[in-house]
Write a structure and sequence with these properties.
EC 2.3.1.274, phosphate:acyl-[acyl carrier protein] acyltransferase activity, Isopropylmalate Dehydrogenase, transferase, alpha/beta, seven-stranded mixed β-sheet, 11 helices, five-stranded mixed β-sheet, lipid metabolism
């Protein structure tokens, strides 16, 4: 398999991307890795080491974080992101990974890679940590702010296939994000979606409240991009505040500092449970090729995780499975 890496996208590019590819190349010698970006920026981080399964694809332009997505994709046709997308479209790469501008990556997926037949709107599907360490795949978390019931049905089908093919879950539990667990709760979108999911060929477990998401009550969480993104930001904010309060309390006096020293291993495990690096690599499901979004602040570890997820999805035949599910629809 061949995986193209947007070497210029992300806060720590191209260092993190290049070093991650070097690690991945050693761990998976059967995989070809293509670093896409400016050769002069990539080479210093290779430190004279270019494994036989790593190549560089020159792409002189860079899509910046503050670029307007669609305009950037259309004008910067020689950018690392668009070049990687074109490689997936043309079949010279089986998948691409980018930690760059999320909107631009979505535009690249739609305008360059293209949608799968039968898919109306691709969805961004990151993994969220859960108390049982299994994680929950949530989609859509921001690719589309407005959605119809039919779109959420497609998210449910694609998300279920992703957990089967990438994580080996035979019968993924699919939940619908809502304000209550009762079937009659919610707005018109969730009520209509509930009926569709009840009759879909998936293991639908009903409505899920946001407070229960991290308890591991479902394997796939379906929601529209607006509600999903609000939930995601709320979870991130709550986690950040919690750690700040803990730090303040555990450094308040010498007794607290002593207790903190004794509990340090436990706190480290808690942080690991909530670390996005352990779950990095959100696919844009519904595209005619595998396009994976890495967190903008991805470090080397996070990029390696994204590569691992991508390899597993390719090995499991994810795109082919989604094509088969929606063929003729």
């Amino acid at each position: 398999m061949k995986i193209a890496i947007d070497a210029m996208g992300g806060d720590h590019a191209p260092r993190a991307q290049t070093q991650a590819v070097l690690q991945a190349a050693a761990e998976w010698p059967d995989t070809q890795f293509i670093l896409v970006g400016r050769t002069d920026a990539i080479q210093p981080h290779l430190q004279g080491n270019l494994p036989s399964n790593v190549t560089i694809e020159e792409a002189p332009e860079v899509i910046e974080a503050d670029d307007e997505p669609v305009r950037a994709v259309r004008r910067k046709t020689s950018s690392s992101m668009v070049t990687a997308g074109r490689m997936v479209k043309e079949g010279t790469a089986d998948a691409m990974i980018s930690a760059g501008n999320t909107g631009a990556l979505m535009a690249t997926g739609l305008l360059v890679v293209g949608r799968l037949p039968g898919i109306e709107r691709p969805g961004l599907a990151p993994m969220l940590p859960t108390i049982d360490n299994a994680g929950v795949l949530a989609l859509d978390l921001g690719a589309n702010m407005d959605a119809k019931p039919e779109h959420l049905l497609q998210y449910a089908l694609m998300g279920s296939l992703y957990r089967q093919k990438t994580h080996g879950i035979e019968k993924p539990r699919v939940g619908l994000l809502n304000v209550g667990t009762e079937a009659a709760k919610g707005n018109e979108l969730t009520k209509q979606t509930f009926e569709l999911l009840e009759n879909a060929p998936i293991h639908f477990v009903g409505n899920v409240e946001s407070r229960d998401v991290l308890d591991g009550v479902c394997d796939v969480l379906v929601c529209d991009g607006f509600s999903g993104n609000v939930m995601l930001k709320a979870i991130e904010g709550a986690a950040g505040v919690l750690f700040k309060v803990l730090k303040q309390e555990l450094t308040a006096d010498w007794k607290s500092k002593l207790a903190a020293a004794m509990l340090k291993p436990s706190f480290r495990r808690v942080k690991q449970k909530l670390d996005y690096n352990e779950y990095n690599g959100a696919p844009l499901l519904g595209l005619n090729g595998l396009v994976v979004k890495g967190h903008g602040s991805s470090d080397v570890k996070a990029m390696v995780t994204a590569i691992r997820q991508t390899r597993t999805s390719l090995s499991g035949g994810l795109i082919e499975a989604i094509k088969g599910e929606f063929s003729g629809k």
